[in-house]
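User: Hey, quick favor. My workstation is busy. Could you predict this chain's structure for me?
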Amino acid sequence: MTHFEIVAHRGIHSEAPENTIAAFQRALEWGADAVEMDIRLTADRIPVVYHYYYLQVVTNSMGAIFDYSLEQLRGVEVICPQKPDAPAGRISTLAEILDLFGGKIGLELEIKGPEPEAPEIIGGLLNRYKPFWPTIEVTSFEPALLLAVSAVCPGLAADLLLEKSEAWEQPDVVAYQAVHRGRLAGARAVHLHTTQLSENIVAVLRRAGMEVHAWDVNDGKALEQAARLGIPRICTDRFKMAYAHRTNLADGSQR
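Assistant: No problem, here it is.
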């Protein structure tokens, strides 16, 4: 496959603080097909875009995000460890991101959970943005969260993220888990880690009626494997490398 969609994981976080407006804007400017972002609930149950439980990982504050109200989070600054001189960002609500980027770039929304009410809250918000649904997909490692989102938002793409396999898991177990966890989730597609990509595992999932996407595609070998297997969408932390690889594949096929 010479063309595949490239998802910028948490935006272009080598240039701007991850999961912030600036990181997503950079992805839009650089030509990403989509941006991946993580959704958590605040103490007052507002969906916000942030990956970690603890604020101190990439912000100037301390404590767990679920203990903060949205108003309290407004003063939190998000930093960029990869580029310390980058301007600080802030934690945005999902609604703010949808207002700014909906319909302009694909949005891959990972529901972190674990709150049982998260799908109803997030799904209720997404129902206000139905015109953008063709460019949105909801993902999670938790099948129950995806099922619940699909009940609130029937027709919205819901994809299962498969955890990276443990050392003891052979390809037959990986394929078996991928198919049946995908079935549990009612998933349109299963997102495999690059170490799980093989002809057999991909074929098993496709025979079961599910497409395959790939995550953590961060080196040339992984990109080549994904392209060889015809993976239509990859998620990467190294956007420029992935974009150059796709361009080279396209140029080579035209010669």
